[in-house]
Amino acid sequence: MTPLALTADLARKARLAGCLYLVIIVTGLGAELGLRAPLIDFSDADATAAAILAAPVQFRLAIASDLMMALSDAGLAILLYLIFRTVAPGLALSAMVFRLIQTVLIATSLTALLAAWLVLSRADELTDAPVLALVFLGLHAYGYDLGLVFFGVNSLIMGSLVWRSGLIARAFGAGLGIAGLVYVTGSGLRFFAPEFSPVFLPAYGLTILAETAFCLRLLSQKGPK
């Protein structure tokens, strides 16, 4: 383990990482909660189809926001590796790989959203188009959760790196570790015990708190005078 010494270059990288993290938080939550969630009701295919067709710009903007999140996530994965690689090179590389896998899975799952839109836009040519579209929307949701399994592992590793680094207070590392456990547990429930997912949902508030705190701490890094 090699504790980090704060340099001007390291501080610049940390602030840039914080900027990308902020973009990820805003676009990710905005796409999922602000733009997409009001349109989708997994218990009512017809209502979901009507809502999406009535707000095509909103639906496409959600896809664009997720794409921006994925692009920023790829950049952040590389930056965090560059920042923490001297602490534990193997762990830093592992964290980058797991985060990039998550990025690829989430970006790939956007094709399911596009498929849902294509189905609904040709509803007059297809039988049960709303139901088929809802299947694609569900596929996207599962793809997102699959990505969060890898992100959960990334968060656990990043928590360890931050804890060891000496660059940031250990509380931030502990927060990331807790967030990682929430992501892995939540996705596991989604796949293997979906009846418990609604009960676990409030735990995701811990992930928002931990990641936002880490983001703000990165943004506040200042180099030596």
Automatic annotation (TrEMBL):
Record-linked InterPro entries: DUF4386
Keywords: Membrane, Transmembrane, Transmembrane helix
Protein name: DUF4386 domain-containing protein
Keyword RNA-binding: no
Transmembrane segments: 20-39, 59-84, 96-120, 132-157, 169-193, 199-219
Short name of any one Pfam family annotated for the protein: DUF4386
Keyword Membrane: yes
